[in-house]
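Reopening this one. Same input as before:
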Amino acid sequence: MNFFFNHTSNAKRSRALVIVSAFMLAFTASVFAENPDGNAVVAEMDRRMNFTECRMIVRVIDRTADGSSRELKANDEYLKEAGTRMDFVEPARDRGKCVLMAGSSMWMSTPAVSKPVRLSGKDAFMGTSFTNDDMMNLDKADDYDSTIVASSSAGWDITMVAKTSSSPYPRIETRINKDYLPVSMTYYARSGKESKKVAFSDVKEFGGKKRPSVMTIVDLMKPGDESSIIFDDIREEPLNRTRLTPGSMGK
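Same output, byte for byte:
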């Protein structure tokens, strides 16, 4: 009789523990969803902004303080954790140029040069207000430690600190909406001064993902200079991965 009683009590306690554990897991998940940390918010922003593997058609419009402007058009290929490739198709003088980021390394090839040339992520992209890293490195979570400094029902203010000195900006102040889409970013120079301001606009749907289709960067060090990248098309589809290697450039 005692054995039966103890066995029944143990079974009840086991079921109770399972129920409590399940409740705690659900509660923890709920709390995390309502109060994620900065790194989780930025990682989710990356996920909503980018496909794991995709092709893109982009335009880059560059404007300078003297009133001049120019426009570039390129076909992009992106594979998360592998690289980004940009092949220029317009204007005619830039057709055939290619920029590749594989891992943390970048190269550029042109029809007039037989071998790709190494690039620095900190240098200006094709003479625009963007850096090479701004254009080619589509994920922020990998390169920055992020902390929420303020939050509201509308979203989060997040401070992002570079994990290594190779990043072009040691600090970024970011505003992200509760839908995990970025609104604005302020890039800081190593001196601690504001270097550039970025605004995200014109949310559109690409392959089931809603994301800003325009990113505009204003160079605070060169008043009057600004550049925009416009995403005309983003399609999730398999890529030929050999094209994301330096040996494929110019082909």
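So the earlier flakiness isn't reproducible anymore. For the record, Residues 143 and 163 are 6 Å apart (CA to CA).
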